[in-house]
Amino acid sequence: MSDPALLSLTEVAAHIRERKLSSVEVTQALLARIEQWQPRLNAFVRIEADEALAAAKEADAELARSGPKGALHGVPMAHKDMYYFAGKPAGCGSKIREGWIASQSSTVIRHLQEAGAIRIGALHMVEFAMGPTGHNAYLGPARNPWNSARISGGSSSGPAAAVAARLTYAALGSDTGGSIRIPANFCGVTGLKASYGRVSRAHVMPLSFTLDTVGPLCRSAEDCALIAELIFREDPLDAVTAGAPAWNKAATRRRADSLKVGVPKRFYVDDLEADVAAALDDTITKVRKLGAKVVSLDLPDPKPIDAAAFVVLSVEATSFHAPWLRTRPQDYTPPVRARLESGLAYSGVEYLEALRWRGPALTAHLEAIGDVDVIVAPAARAVAPKIADTDPSGANATAIKEMSGFLRPMNYLGVPALVVPVAHSAAGLPIGLQLIGRPFGDETLIALGCALQQASDEHLRVPQLR
Amino acid sequence: MSERVTAQRVKAFAEAARVPIEDDAAARAARTVDPTVRCLDELALELALEIEPASFVAIARKGAKG
């Protein structure tokens, strides 16, 4: 068999269950690849080779003894270093949380462990998930596997870089203002920002309780569905999941020719780089060929939505960090401290008006889309920029803020969005698009994502180490 | 055009929050935040009296159905 590290999550899980590959073989394959790529990418903050191999050995023994534990039996994985594992450190990309040991595991981590997944390490992230580029002045930047002079995107920088380079079969990231979709887009992987309230955030580092979502970055939409089936559940430890619908596997098989797909007439399609515009046009043609009905949409201006989201995110993040801002301000890197200090500048009335407008803004969005199932839109105007051109310590604030401009509105509206890689630019960098759903319409995005990926091999392209 | 958000305001809010902030940091925060506050001002939000943050949840659940 060729390199097991190159299999998809769905494939490797089946191979282990069917004993075509052992968990030890698979773990060794990933570790060998991590050893080659880590110096280039800085995608991992911790590599736990010995513990992972011991867990893999135990998984193989358990499989022989009593069969598979679940859908991910013996599959090694790593996640953004803000997911808590009882007894393990979770540094959250920061000096402040360096060496902090979690006493409880995240609910979503427990779900993956109950399905048989094992841990191979922890992945790089932007300090406290506050930034879209992948820079981290404390840890150094994560780098893009397609071109190491380019940003990975953030804040789920390690997850995207590691999934793209085939160093983990899947990774959990978080998305408060685009933090799954930005790096998924720039690194050429598939990333799901879940509907607000469908996945528990219990014992995951918070940033903004109104906007935080957690979700997977994977090698395909099919793999995202495998993870979603395990983690989309109500959780008494996270009240916002109360009453949310459970994952509906049947809905992920919805035929593309039953879908109505909208394409924004303006805002999201203005001033696109030529390669991105061409990728959008090509994908719309593919969607039509799949039989979906395509219509133009006049969506509300995203700028005020983005502004309201920015107020909510800033104030809530500053509230979480206020104790450390009082006692350890010097332990933040300057760009993150500056962002947190900005959150002090809003009044209580401004914050609450921004929060109260969320419902009316969603109403306006729903009126604009009518009975459209999925919106197809760019994830960014351009491909991944250079690391040197986007350093948050420099005078790049506007460019950095705009990186989230197409994405943060979806956090405010609470709707799901799936980034799928659809093309490569002339310079060899990935181009993704976001499929935006109705509230709780995550499964429909998977259905269209799978249909697009069955008609294209873009998601199968693997960066080469040169 | 006068500033909506000033360094003095940021200093006052920071003091109320018991967070120390230098003068230049307060000025930077004011410059960062001012355009966002202006953007929302221009929207001239007229929120119905009954709208509260949890109204969003009911609208999202209704919107799922299409």
Task: Compose a concise summary of this entry.
Chain A is an alpha+beta fold and 466 residues long. Chain A is built from 15 helices and 13 strands.
Detail the topology: elements first, then pairings:
The complex is a heterodimer of chains A (466) and B (66).
Chain A: H1 9-17, H2 23-41, E1 44-47, H3 49-66, E2 76-80, H4 107-114, E3 118-123, E4 143-144, E5 147-151, H5 157-164, E6 170-175, H6 181-187, E7 190-193, E8 213-218, H7 221-231, E9 260-264, H8 274-289, E10 293-297, H9 302-327, H10 334-342, H11 348-356, H12 358-369, E11 374-378, H13 397-402, H14 408-413, E12 417-424, E13 430-437, H15 442-454
Parallel strand pairs in A: 2-3, 9-10, 9-11
Antiparallel strand pairs in A: 1-3, 4-5, 6-8, 7-8, 7-12, 11-13, 12-13
Helix pairs in contact in A: 2-3, 5-6, 7-15, 9-10, 9-11
Chain B: H1 7-16, H2 23-43, H3 55-63
Helix pairs in contact in B: 1-2
List the defining traits of the structure above.
heterodimer, A: 466 residues, alpha+beta, 8-stranded mixed beta sheet, 3-stranded mixed beta sheet, 13 strands, B: 66 residues, mainly alpha, 3 helices
